[in-house]
Amino acid sequence: AQSVTQLGSHVSVSEGALVLLRCNYSSSVPPYLFWYVQYPNQGLQLLLKYTTGATLVKGINGFEAEFKKSETSFHLTKPSAHMSDAAEYFCAVTTNAGKSTFGDGTTLTVKP
Amino acid sequence: DTGVSQNPRHKITKRGQNVTFRCDPISEHNRLYWYRQTLGQGPEFLTYFQNEAQLEKSRLLSDRFSAERPKGSFSTLEIQRTEQGDSAMYLCASSLGEGGQPQHFGDGTRLSIL
Is A49 an interface residue toward B (CB < 8 Å)? Predict the structure, then answer.
């Protein structure tokens, strides 16, 4: 069984500030981990993924995430928030068969 | 890569009616997934196909739900005798290969039950 917990359903930052969105997972096998972003009335878009190898993963739009096995975490960060980053963010853990379990999401608000 | 296409984008229907949604995946993708998303929650897995074979169904998928993927191309999700609780966004995704590959999502079909 696998599960995902996203700490903080809402995060608010000022434009230019650090963005940190937290994700902890539970998986009985080595996980594949993903972050997706969702804009209103749209599907999910891939930000980045961790499969194997380097634990610091870089994604699109300046986002990155670090896989920490000992902490079962995969937190998403961005050094400087932009207004266009305002959206909902989902962390997901996926089995080798491709079945994904998503967290409940974190809504990011960026204040001018 | 034309992306995953879902139709219709919105469906409003009366309780008790049947509805059918269509998903056209990215053409070379062999895996296709259906998810349901309600407000304030992440997508919940419903079912997935590898080519034309339906490999797994969630217990969320009651007997009123059925999905097909004839010839391993497009897929349909049908809900019979709709109920208020079926109101949600239904998302389709496709991928090439197994779990390490990201899923590409369509924009979803929003179902509203009157």
Answer: yes
Average pLDDT over residues A88-108: 91
Please name the residues in contact with B9: beta carbons below 8 A apart, sequence gap of 6 or more: B107, B108, B109, B110
- Provide the phi-psi class of B40: left if phi over 0, else alpha when psi is between -120 and 50, else beta: left
Distances (CA, A) of B80 to A13, B16, B20, B66: 44, 7, 9, 8
| Chain B residues in contact with A7 (beta carbon < 8 A) | none
**Nearest-CB residue to A99 (from B56, B104, B110):** B56
Q: Is A112 helix (H, G, I), strand (E, B) or coil?
A: coil
Other CB atoms closer than 10 Å to residue B40's CB: what's the count? Answer: 10
- So what's the pLDDT on residue B22? 98
Residue B1 pLDDT greater than 60, yes or no: no
Nearest to B45 among A46, A100, A105 (CB): A100
Alpha-carbon gap, residue A112 to A44, rounded angstroms: 25
Q: Which residues contact A16 (CB under 8 A, 6 or more apart)?
A: A80, A81
Neighbours of A71 (CB within 10 A): 10
Q: Lay out the sheet containing A56-58: strands in order across.
A: A2-7, A19-27, A73-78, A64-68, A56-58
Distance, CA of A50 to CA of A19 (rounded, Å): 19
Element spanning A79, H or E: none
* Contact between chains at B104 and A46 (C-beta distance less than 8 A): yes
Question: Distance, in angstroms, between B5 CA and closest chain A CA?
Answer: 10
